[in-house]
Amino acid sequence: MFKETLVKISVAVIISALATGVFAQTYPNKPINLVVPQAAGGTNDIVARLIAPGLGEALGASIVVENRPGAGGNIGTQSVARAAKDGYTLLLTINSAQAINPALYKNPGFDPINDFVPLYYIGATPYVLVAPPGSPLKTLADVVAAAKKKPGELSYASAGNGTISHLLGAMINTSAGIEMQHIPYKGVAPAINDVLGGQVPLAFASLPSALNYIKAGKLQAIAISSAKRSSAAPDIPTIAETYPDCVGEVWVAIFAPAGTNAFAVKKIQSAMKATLSMPEVRERLMAQGLDLAPVPPEKLGALLKDELAKWVRIVKASGAQLD
After folding, report:
1. How many domains are contained in the chain?
2. In this predicted model, what pLDDT tens digit does every residue of 300-320 receive, in sequence order?
3. Three-state SS for 51?
4. Angle at 223 between CA 222 and CA 225, to 5 degrees
5. Do both 131 and 220 map to the same domain?
6. What is the gyration radius of the CA atoms in the chain, in angstroms?
7. What is the spatial distance between Cα 222 and Cα 42, in angstroms, rounded to a whole number?
8. What is the pLDDT of residues 75-120, one digit of tens each?
9. Residue after which a domain boundary falls, among 197, 221, 241
10. Residue 120, helix vs strand vs coil
C-alpha cells in the first residue's frame, strides 16, 4: 500500500512538473486582460494606459486595458477574483477599492487578502481639491470660511461614496469643524466635468486626473492631500500644512487571482520591473504626479493589510456604510 501511494505521488509530481514546463514554454501566447475596476479618466486608468505598451513589450504579448466600473470598483474586482488562474487576467487597482471597500460595503463580494496574489506596487499620488477658474475659493482658508458662514450649503464632489476623495472631505469637516455637503459621482471624470461646468463648486480629484486641467487654467487648485508638496505641482499647498491629520493618497498596484500559476506571477513581476525601468514610462508617470517610490512585491501584501486597518478606522469615524 505504501509503495502504491508513493508511486501515485511521484506520478502526480512528474505530471505537475511537465505541465509547469509546458506552461513556461508557451506563456504568454495570447492577449492579457488588464482590468481597471473604475471608469476611464481615473488614476488607475491613466496608469494602465501608460504602462500597457511597455508591459506588453516586456512580456511579448499585447495588453488589453478593460474598464469594468461599478459599485465603487467591486464589480471589476470581483470579476478578477473569479477569473482563471492562468495569468491572462490581471487587476490594476487603487487602494480605495482594495483597502476601503471591504470596510465600506457589508459584502463587497471579494476578500482583498485571500482572493488575490499581490504582483507589483506601481506608485502613489495625492488628491487635489479643485474649483472652477475665477472661483472666490482660492485657498483652504477660503473654503473653511465659506463653509462656516453657511453650514451644510457648500458642497464638494467625489469619485463616489467611500472613496478617498469622499473621506478626505469628511476628514476636513472633522478637523476644521465645518459641514461641507458630499456629492458622490460615478468616477472622477464626471465629477471634474461638473466642476468645469460650474454645477458643483469643489471636487477632490486625484492629481493625475486633474493636473492637465490645472496646467491649462481650466481648474483652480486649492490644496493637495499628501504629507508634503508634490514635485509635479510644488506650488500647490498641502491640506496637512493647516490640518496635519488630513493626509490621504491613492496608490496603484497590480494583483492576480489567488492561485495564479507561479511562473506567470514571476514573469509578470519581472516584466513590470523592466517596464518601470524604461525612462519614457517613468517620465510619463511622474509627469502625472505619481511618486514611484518602490515597495517590493513581497511587501505589497503587508502594505495592503496596514491600509485595511487604517481605513476601517476612518470609515467608521465618518459613518459611511453601503450595502
Report:
1. 2
2. 999 999 999 988 888 887 777
3. helix
4. 150
5. yes
6. 22
7. 19
8. 999 999 999 999 999 999 999 899 999 999 989 999 999 999 999 9
9. 241
10. strand
